[in-house]
Amino acid sequence: MTYFRRHRRLRKHPGLRAMLQENQLRIQDLIYPIFVKEEGEGATEILSMPGIYQHTLDSLEEEIKEVLRLGIPAVLLFGIPAEKDALGSQAYASDGIIQQAIPVIKALAPDLLVTTDTCLCEYTDHGHCGCLDHAGYVLNDESLELHKKAAIAQARAGADIIAPSSAMDGFVHVIRQGLDEAGFPLVPIMSYAIKYSSAFYGPFRDAADSAPSFGDRKTYQMPVANRREAMRELASDIDEGADFVMVKPALAYMDIIRDVRERTDLPIVTYNVSGEFSMIKAASQNAWIDEESIVMESLLGMKRAGADLIITYFAKDVARWLSATES
Questions:
Q1: 244 Cβ partners below 8 Å, 6+ apart?
Q2: Any idea which positions bind Zn(2+) (predicted)?
Q3: Global pTM value
């Protein structure tokens, strides 16, 4: 008789399967995105992202209390200002909405890690991630100065982690230099190092009111077909002093997460973006899939690919599911 290995021996018992599980998803791995708006009252649900809300400073307090109850260790803040202009000045104003929100959060939850998205697209009247020339082209170096000002304003307000997402060349270098000179050498940078020009961002642009008023972002975000280019982007941000590196989106880019894991020992973050979230929510609401199983499989896949941390709109759901399993 020909001998063959019985791999199923190690799968027969649920306890054995649990003991031999190679990758774990923990509440401590999660970062929860929150949208904070300046105008209006209370929370407004985002139609394309069921269960996700735009919060005012008043409703933000209850949201943070729930994050604390669930044990989620970190949030990522996006601001929606009352007024926008060509230079996105509310991104770096001392009284900008994110600069107001951070102290509110820190008063409620001093140990909660507050990460701030450092970009201009939510704040510019044209919806692009930097300032423009007369022809509508996004200027790189001039935009960097504005991103530096935003990062410093966020750090002064109490941000624990700065997360630049504009995809401008040199943004880590300029922001690192600016933070150091402003007296914040210990504030880390979570760089959106590899950010693709993805169709999966659609619902986010509803949530953050950040869709470009003309054109697209393909001159500064990465082409979706490219893999080697991603490694060049990664190398630049590591050389410039990034403390974390991010791959965004996640599900269609597992190969990129694995490539990054093989090239760096820095913490890797991946962003389970709005389109990925909304597709699963829509299918679940139609009873086409089991939401919990699909979400947990997807996020475990990101961990298996090499991600250390996951930014996800499912963070509160996942925290509840994990807590229920442990109890």
A1: 161, 188, 189, 190, 191, 266, 267, 268, 269, 309
A2: 119, 121, 129
A3: 0.95
